[in-house]
């Protein structure tokens, strides 16, 4: 029986995002064969390599890894302000690349990577994992079966500084971009008008953003971010004429669940005077839908890594390729330019 073709993978950066989600995911993806890992702190790379049954080669410098290994793909999992150079170098070497978000510290960087991917004729996938969360995909399927979508709201709230990477970039484009990208993707149109209110609380930089967006297809988008709060709150709301959904992707912990209301045919505008509307109520468990109990397995990391492998083998574009990265970074700029 013929052996299924595998993608020879190198990993650049073995910090938290690699150790906690991508390396475990790659161990579970049958199409992936991790043959090399690289980190400036070589002992970290060696420690992570020991977790594989077939130990990959270890490097301190990624140019050496790219030169010596016969790689089909690399995962660039460095800090956001250090992700551009290894991504571009790997593309220039003719290697497919998965890069963690954001796809650049600026839109200009992201557009440069798009040009680089096109010139090399290689896949460049961006780690917008929220699109791959099985719960999110299930909710969208269920809502769209019963209703059009007219309003999408994304919330990303934490407690910490909004100056990421020692001030190299803001939390808005480095972190909140998860919510920004998902709202744009679900809305399905291009932003036509927006109003953004910003604020600053107990930090040296702006750390509150609240935006209302009109998309050209009539969908309303709402985005809320605040980095000086009680803790991590990550949620999305989706509304249409016959359905409303609330997706909980974190309330202090790595929760993953959803509730959907489908209109049942009886209108009531006051629960006090007329009682509740007639609704069909659905509650979903994200872990159950994914068939996974591990964070990386139900939060979209496993699914996006497998999609990257399959896109390489099948020669097709991923859902979150660099063109989508450019659109989301341009959306970031659009919202920032709409401050009132």
List keywords for this structure.
340 residues; eight-stranded mixed β-sheet; 16 strands; Rossmann fold; alpha/beta; six-stranded parallel β-sheet; Dihydrodipicolinate Reductase, domain 2
Account of the protein in words:
- This protein has 340 residues and is α/β, with parallel strands linked by helices.
- The chain folds into two domains: 7-130 and 302-321, 3-Layer(aba) Sandwich (Rossmann fold); 134-291, Dihydrodipicolinate Reductase, domain 2.
- Helix content is 36%, strand content 30%.
- It is built from 13 helices and 16 strands.
- The strands form three sheets. The protein has an eight-stranded mixed β-sheet with strand order 10-11-12-7-13-14-15-16. The protein has a six-stranded parallel β-sheet with strand order 3-2-1-4-5-6, sandwiched between helices. It has a two-stranded antiparallel ribbon with strand order 8-9.
- The radius of gyration is 21 Å and the shape is globular.
- It starts with 6 loop residues before the first strand and ends with a helix.
- 45% of the residues are buried.
- The model has no long low-confidence stretch (mean pLDDT 95).
Q: Structurally, how many domains make up the residues? A: 2
- Order of strands across the widest beta sheet? 10-11-12-7-13-14-15-16
Main sheet overview? 8 strands, mixed
| Average pLDDT rating | 95
- Helical content (DSSP H or I, runs of 4+): 25-40%
Q: What fold name goes in the CATH topology slot of the largest domain?
A: Dihydrodipicolinate Reductase, domain 2
């Amino acid at each position: 029986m013929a052996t299924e073709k595998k993608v020879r993978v190198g990993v650049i950066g073995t910090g938290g995002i690699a150790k906690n989600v991508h390396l475990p995911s790659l161990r579970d993806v049958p199409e992936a064969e991790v043959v090399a890992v690289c980190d400036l702190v070589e002992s970290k790379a060696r420690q992570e390599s020991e977790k594989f049954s077939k130990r990959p080669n270890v490097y301190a410098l990624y140019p050496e890894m790219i030169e010596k290994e016969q790689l089909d793909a690399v995962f660039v999992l460095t800090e956001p302000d250090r992700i551009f150079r290894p991504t571009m170098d790997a593309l220039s070497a003719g290697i497919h690349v998965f890069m963690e978000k954001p796809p650049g510290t600026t839109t200009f960087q992201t557009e440069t990577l798009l040009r680089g991917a096109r010139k090399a004729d290689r896949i460049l996938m961006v780690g917008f994992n929220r699109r791959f969360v099985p719960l999110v995909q299930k909710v969208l399927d269920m809502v769209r079966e019963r209703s059009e979508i007219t309003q999408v709201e994304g919330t990303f709230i934490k407690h910490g500084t909004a100056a990421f990477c020692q001030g190299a970039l803001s939390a808005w484009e480095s972190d909140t971009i998860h919510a920004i990208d998902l709202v744009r993707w679900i809305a399905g149109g291009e932003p036509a008008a927006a109003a953004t209110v910003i604020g600053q609380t107990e930090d040296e930089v702006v750390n509150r953003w609240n935006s209302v967006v009109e998309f050209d297809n009539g969908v309303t988008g709402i985005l809320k971010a605040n980095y000086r709060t009680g803790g991590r709150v990550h949620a999305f709301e989706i509304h249409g004429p016959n359905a409303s959904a609330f997706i909980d992707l974190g309330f202090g912990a790595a929760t993953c669940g959803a509730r959907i209301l489908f209109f049942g045919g009886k209108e009531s505008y006051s629960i006090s005077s007329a009682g509740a509307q007639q609704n069909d109520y659905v509650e979903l468990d994200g872990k159950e839908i994914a068939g996974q109990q591990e964070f990386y397995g139900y939060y979209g990391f496993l699914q996006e890594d497998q999609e990257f492998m399959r896109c390489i083998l099948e020669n097709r574009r991923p859902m979150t390729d660099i063109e989508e990265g450019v659109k989301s970074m341009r959306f970031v700029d659009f919202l920032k330019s709409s401050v009132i």
